[in-house]
Design goal:
About 50% of the residues are buried. Strand 1 and strand 2 form a beta hairpin. By secondary structure, the chain is of the alpha/beta class. It contains 23 helices and 7 strands. It is globular.
Length: about 575
């Protein structure tokens, strides 16, 4: 196909003179969206909702991190103490307060709007992640405009939006989606200042808006996850300074005023928590959490190269194109735009690969740079035609593998083939197949869009239908449902053997986490009490009950699977005689 517009260089975007592939429906949708910034934003928000909402309301709280964040926020709202961070009676000083404040605002707002039981609905706590994910997509569009055309910026944002990793994080009440938003805001502002300097622009009065965005984003990132955001920005700046053999452009960041502004935003809470807890927060968050990740923390150790291997899953459907773009990006590495994006990407990626503790979401703030680099190569029509082009099969392989695993998992756990998901699975397979079989290097955009549509249908199938149907994976939800249906008022519970954070969140902050003997003692102390005893601790429970003369019976038994420990469980809900 003949090229219809001049090839833009990284850092020198040009709008296409003619529309590309006007006969293709998916491409026409991009043409429509790229006609203006308002259309582009509306299109990306719509795509975000289609990709992120399936399962958002119906998937129960997931152990362990999501449940811990949500429960700590719940206790903030219950106590009215918005400085200290606690999980039951224990302090939780791993992360700063930012995400807890955001989740608390969501809970208070939902309660004010009349939503019953807002503090028990996990989707309310997930709202900050949904907003963060969609905001990060919009900011990726904004950041990409410094490097590619408006059309390319839409495609880059769509790559991030449809990625498996962001799709998962948007559904979890944690810090990572909102941290991504702050990183993209900071790096987008930094990019504009750097590219302005590279173009030789030397205004008498440099604009304040980019420094304000940069330093405010840094403050937000620090309140969310500590100094991690400083690593992304700092390594990028140092790398650029080395490559350019100078960093005079940094004065355009107005570092003196900017640093003061950042401290004004972050210091109040850090001073307040120090006043409340002394150096306990800093010891736990920096020494106990951050520095411990240099070792293999919580059985998450892995050798270097894991993130690269996972990339072809976590960045799908953009991963095949990203691989094809590598040779072109390497050739363009000294162009200002590519140099900035690689400085954002490579140093931090190397750090994460070298750190022993590895979790997939750690590299999420680097994905916008990959998306923009990939679309830059696509716009220039310089994607690899070598063996890397065979990666187009990945557009079909991921839906096929994910569908098989999901259906087999559903049948194994629930004895149900979840027929409702099959039409979505079929659609994902069809669009993935189109993306693979119709791939040509000069029509790569069309295949990519087929992959994005496949991702949408896969989200409906996996997150919207299959995952909520896997009830054995969420025993806490079953236990909470059983306790809400008892006749007596104000039931109290003690748990033995199964003590996941989700159980505390879904039942009550006062739920006692104990052993089998402690559960028996708890049950003997009054009426409307229930002991949640996992099968492995039932003997200790029965022995103690016999010793103290406790008479009890089984209200119900719940069989499930503890995903945190990777083992099946069977939980008996005991009640004292006379309790209904």
């Amino acid at each position: 196909m003949a090229e219809t517009y001049a090839r833009p260089r990284f850092g020198a975007p040009r709008e296409p003179k003619n529309l590309v592939n006007p006969g293709n429906t998916l491409v026409r949708a991009i043409d429509f969206a790229a006609a203006s910034h308002v259309r582009a934003a509306a299109f990306l928000v719509l795509c975000g909702l289609l990709l992120f909402l399936p399962g958002f309301f119906s998937i129960p709280v997931i152990d362990r991190d999501e449940a811990r964040f949500a429960q700590a926020t719940k206790q903030m709202v219950e106590s009215g103490d918005y400085v200290d961070i606690r999980f039951q009676d224990d302090v939780r000083y791993k992360k700063p307060v930012g995400i807890y404040w955001m989740q608390a605002v969501a809970v208070k707002t939902a309660s004010a709007l009349g939503l019953p039981g807002a503090d028990r609905r996990i989707w309310v706590y997930r709202m900050s992640s949904l907003i963060g994910a969609i905001g990060a997509v919009l900011l990726t569009y904004w950041a990409a405009l410094a490097f590619v055309t408006r059309r390319g910026a839409v495609l880059a944002a769509l790559l991030l939006c449809s990625s498996v990793l962001l799709s998962a994080e948007a559904r979890l009440a944690k810090t990572d989606a909102m941290l991504l938003l702050t990183v993209v805001a900071a790096m987008g502002a930094l990019a504009r200042i750097y590219m302005s300097w590279q173009r030789g622009e030397d205004p008498a009065h440099p604009p304040w808006r980019w420094p304000i965005i940069f330093w405010t984003a840094l403050a937000g990132g620090i309140l969310l996850k500590g100094p991690l955001i400083l690593m992304f920005a700092g390594l990028s700046i140092v790398t650029l300074a080395i490559l350019d053999r100078g960093a005079s452009w940094l004065w355009r960041l107005r570092p003196v005023w900017g640093l003061m502004w950042m401290l004004v935003l972050v210091l109040p809470w850090f001073v307040a928590i120090y006043w409340r807890a002394g150096d306990a927060f800093f010891a736990d968050s920096i020494g106990g959490d951050m520095l411990s990740k240099l070792a293999a923390q919580e059985s998450h150790g892995a050798p270097p190269g894991l993130y690269l291997a996972l990339f072809f899953i976590t960045f799908w459907p953009g991963a095949p194109l990203a691989a094809m773009a590598v040779p072109a990006v390497w050739r363009a590495r000294r162009e200002p735009g590519a140099q900035f994006l690689l400085s954002w990407l490579v140093p931090s990626w190397v750090v994460f690969e070298l750190v022993l503790t590895k979790l997939p979401h750690y590299v999420l703030p680097l994905y916008p740079a990959i998306a923009i680099l990939t679309i830059g190569a696509l716009e220039r029509r310089v994607l690899s035609r070598s063996w890397l082009a065979r990666g187009s099969a990945w557009w079909f392989a991921i839906p096929a593998l994910a569908s098989i695993i999901a259906v087999i998992g559903a049948i194994t756990l629930t004895r149900q083939p979840v027929f409702v998901a099959w039409p979505f699975v079929a659609a994902a397979l069809i669009f993935g197949l189109f993306g693979w079989l119709l791939y040509e290097d000069n029509r790569a955009e069309r295949s990519l869009l087929n992959g994005v549509v496949a991702a949408m249908f896969l989200a409906f199938a996996i997150f919207g239908v299959v995952t909520p149907a896997l009830t054995p994976l969420f025993p806490s939800a079953e236990i909470a449902h059983a306790l809400r249906n008892v006749v007596c008022k104000g039931p109290k519970a003690a748990a033995s053997g199964f003590q996941e954070p989700s159980l505390v969140f879904m039942t009550n902050t006062a739920t006692l986490l104990t052993d089998g003997s402690g559960a028996a003692d708890f049950l003997s102390q009054g009426s409307c009490r229930f002991a949640l005893v996992e099968q492995r601790t039932e003997r200790a429970f029965a022995q103690r009950a016999e010793a103290i003369g406790l008479r009890y019976n089984v209200a119900t038994r719940i069989d499930g699977y503890n995903i945190s420990q990777g083992r099946p469980i069977s939980i008996a809900i005991f009640r004292s005689e006379g309790t209904e």
